[in-house]
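# nightly structure sweep
# worker-07 picked up a monomer target from the shared queue
# config: single-sequence mode, recycle default, output format = structure tokens
# input follows
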Amino acid sequence: MQYAAALTHWIVTALITRKGIPPQEISDTLKQDVYYVRYICDKCAPLGTVEFRREDNMIFHTEIYNNHPFERIVGPVSKGFEAYLYVENINKTTDGPIRIEVMHNDSPFVVKKELINQLITYTIK
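# output follows
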């Protein structure tokens, strides 16, 4: 992850410098907090649907089959992003907990909300 961050920093600096933006402004831009959201349902039902909010704030809808775990990572997002996860099987329930995890900059993912429920939301603060 650090290699990717260093490479991104170098590329962004090179591109922005060519456009004549002052180095301090570049540095301030690169220091902004970055968040990624991971949606997880370990025990999704054999047949059902999952909805989650993407980084463009659109709700994405997908089908799940064969009792496979569901996991998606979206981002980068910023403070104020409202993570949304909805899981429903043909019995209108879930078979286990669903959770939202958040990664801040280079830190590991941290569980922010976990419930045995069909719907959970979490707003990055």
